[in-house]
Amino acid sequence: MIGDEPTHVFNGKIFSAINEFKPNYVFCPFPDRHIDHRYVFESALVATRPVRVGKDIELVAAYETLSETHWNAPYIEPNFTQNFVIDISDHIENKIDALRCYESQISENEGPRSLKAVRALSEFRGTQSGFNFGEAFYIIRMVS
Protein backbone atom coordinates (compact mmCIF):
# COMPACT_ATOMS: atom_id res chain seq x y z
CA MET A 1 0.00 0.00 0.00
CA ILE A 2 1.10 3.52 -0.77
CA GLY A 3 -0.91 5.65 1.59
CA ASP A 4 -4.48 4.51 0.98
CA GLU A 5 -3.72 3.28 -2.53
CA PRO A 6 -2.63 -0.22 -3.53
CA THR A 7 0.92 -0.28 -4.90
CA HIS A 8 -0.17 -1.64 -8.28
CA VAL A 9 -2.56 1.29 -8.73
CA PHE A 10 0.17 3.83 -7.99
CA ASN A 11 2.59 1.96 -10.29
CA GLY A 12 -0.08 2.06 -12.98
CA LYS A 13 -0.34 5.84 -12.72
CA ILE A 14 3.40 6.29 -13.16
CA PHE A 15 3.41 3.81 -16.04
CA SER A 16 0.50 5.65 -17.70
CA ALA A 17 2.47 8.91 -17.62
CA ILE A 18 5.52 7.17 -19.12
CA ASN A 19 3.35 5.52 -21.76
CA GLU A 20 1.58 8.78 -22.64
CA PHE A 21 4.62 11.06 -22.86
CA LYS A 22 7.19 8.49 -24.05
CA PRO A 23 10.17 10.37 -22.57
CA ASN A 24 13.76 9.83 -23.66
CA TYR A 25 15.01 10.73 -20.17
CA VAL A 26 13.42 9.96 -16.82
CA PHE A 27 14.62 11.63 -13.63
CA CYS A 28 13.26 10.31 -10.34
CA PRO A 29 14.03 11.08 -6.72
CA PHE A 30 16.81 9.17 -5.00
CA PRO A 31 15.24 6.78 -2.44
CA ASP A 32 15.96 8.92 0.59
CA ARG A 33 14.46 9.80 3.96
CA HIS A 34 11.22 11.13 2.39
CA ILE A 35 8.85 8.18 2.06
CA ASP A 36 7.12 9.70 -1.00
CA HIS A 37 10.50 9.83 -2.75
CA ARG A 38 10.94 6.12 -2.07
CA TYR A 39 7.50 5.29 -3.47
CA VAL A 40 8.05 7.35 -6.62
CA PHE A 41 11.52 5.86 -7.09
CA GLU A 42 10.21 2.29 -6.82
CA SER A 43 7.30 2.97 -9.18
CA ALA A 44 9.53 4.77 -11.67
CA LEU A 45 11.84 1.75 -11.82
CA VAL A 46 8.86 -0.51 -12.49
CA ALA A 47 7.54 1.82 -15.22
CA THR A 48 10.92 2.29 -16.92
CA ARG A 49 11.97 -1.35 -17.17
CA PRO A 50 13.59 -1.87 -20.58
CA VAL A 51 10.55 -3.59 -22.08
CA ARG A 52 7.59 -2.16 -24.04
CA VAL A 53 7.69 1.65 -23.92
CA GLY A 54 10.60 1.50 -21.43
CA LYS A 55 12.96 0.04 -24.01
CA ASP A 56 13.08 3.42 -25.80
CA ILE A 57 14.16 5.34 -22.69
CA GLU A 58 17.79 6.40 -23.07
CA LEU A 59 18.45 7.52 -19.49
CA VAL A 60 16.95 6.77 -16.09
CA ALA A 61 18.65 8.71 -13.30
CA ALA A 62 17.96 9.64 -9.68
CA TYR A 63 18.48 13.16 -8.34
CA GLU A 64 19.33 14.30 -4.85
CA THR A 65 16.99 16.42 -2.75
CA LEU A 66 18.31 18.81 -0.12
CA SER A 67 17.18 18.03 3.43
CA GLU A 68 16.24 14.48 2.50
CA THR A 69 18.92 12.68 0.47
CA HIS A 70 21.80 13.44 2.82
CA TRP A 71 19.87 12.28 5.90
CA ASN A 72 19.87 8.56 5.07
CA ALA A 73 21.58 6.38 7.69
CA PRO A 74 25.14 5.64 6.49
CA TYR A 75 25.86 1.98 5.67
CA ILE A 76 22.29 0.99 6.56
CA GLU A 77 20.50 2.79 3.74
CA PRO A 78 21.75 3.81 0.32
CA ASN A 79 23.70 7.06 0.27
CA PHE A 80 23.73 9.37 -2.72
CA THR A 81 27.00 9.21 -4.63
CA GLN A 82 26.67 10.93 -7.97
CA ASN A 83 28.07 9.39 -11.10
CA PHE A 84 26.78 12.04 -13.52
CA VAL A 85 26.85 15.84 -13.22
CA ILE A 86 25.23 18.28 -15.64
CA ASP A 87 26.73 21.74 -16.05
CA ILE A 88 23.99 24.20 -15.03
CA SER A 89 26.23 27.26 -14.85
CA ASP A 90 24.18 29.08 -17.49
CA HIS A 91 20.93 28.18 -15.72
CA ILE A 92 21.59 28.60 -11.99
CA GLU A 93 19.58 31.83 -11.77
CA ASN A 94 16.63 30.15 -13.54
CA LYS A 95 16.82 27.32 -11.02
CA ILE A 96 16.86 29.73 -8.08
CA ASP A 97 13.94 31.72 -9.54
CA ALA A 98 11.96 28.52 -10.10
CA LEU A 99 12.57 27.39 -6.52
CA ARG A 100 11.18 30.69 -5.24
CA CYS A 101 7.77 29.46 -6.49
CA TYR A 102 7.79 26.84 -3.71
CA GLU A 103 7.39 29.25 -0.80
CA SER A 104 6.24 26.55 1.64
CA GLN A 105 9.30 24.38 0.91
CA ILE A 106 12.12 26.86 0.30
CA SER A 107 13.37 29.66 2.53
CA GLU A 108 15.52 32.56 1.39
CA ASN A 109 18.58 32.22 3.65
CA GLU A 110 18.17 29.57 6.38
CA GLY A 111 17.87 25.82 6.53
CA PRO A 112 18.88 22.91 4.34
CA ARG A 113 16.31 23.84 1.67
CA SER A 114 17.16 27.50 1.60
CA LEU A 115 18.05 29.23 -1.66
CA LYS A 116 21.51 29.73 -0.15
CA ALA A 117 21.92 25.98 0.45
CA VAL A 118 20.62 25.10 -3.02
CA ARG A 119 23.11 27.48 -4.60
CA ALA A 120 25.93 26.14 -2.38
CA LEU A 121 25.18 22.51 -3.28
CA SER A 122 25.05 23.41 -6.98
CA GLU A 123 28.38 25.19 -6.66
CA PHE A 124 29.91 22.25 -4.78
CA ARG A 125 28.64 19.70 -7.32
CA GLY A 126 29.92 21.91 -10.12
CA THR A 127 33.39 22.25 -8.65
CA GLN A 128 33.59 18.47 -8.30
CA SER A 129 33.28 18.25 -12.09
CA GLY A 130 35.02 21.39 -13.33
CA PHE A 131 31.93 23.61 -13.67
CA ASN A 132 30.82 26.70 -11.80
CA PHE A 133 27.47 25.06 -10.95
CA GLY A 134 26.33 21.47 -11.40
CA GLU A 135 23.32 19.23 -10.90
CA ALA A 136 24.23 15.73 -9.68
CA PHE A 137 22.51 12.47 -10.57
CA TYR A 138 22.97 8.76 -10.09
CA ILE A 139 22.56 6.91 -13.38
CA ILE A 140 20.40 3.84 -13.01
CA ARG A 141 20.33 2.91 -16.69
CA MET A 142 21.76 4.60 -19.77
CA VAL A 143 21.61 3.45 -23.35
CA SER A 144 23.59 5.20 -26.06
Uncertain segments are none
Radius of gyration: 16 Å
Topology as a string of helices (H) and strands (E): HEHEEHHE
The CATH homologous superfamily is called LmbE-like
Tell me roughly what share of residues is in helical segments: 25-40%
Assembly state: single chain
Mind describing the biggest β-sheet?
Answer: 4 strands, mixed
Count of distinct strands: 4
The proportion of strand residues reads 15-25%
How many DSSP helices? 4
Name of the CATH architecture? 3-Layer(aba) Sandwich
Explain this structure to me?
Helix content is 34%, strand content 16%. Helix 2 links the parallel strand 1 (25-29) and strand 2 (59-63). It contains four helices and four strands, in the order H-E-H-E-E-H-H-E. The model has no long low-confidence stretch (mean pLDDT 92). The protein has 144 residues and is an alpha+beta fold. Helix 1 (7-21) packs across helix 2. It has a single domain (7-142), classed as Rossmann fold, CATH 3.40.50.10320. The radius of gyration is 16 Å and the shape is globular. A four-stranded mixed β-sheet has the order 1-2-4-3.
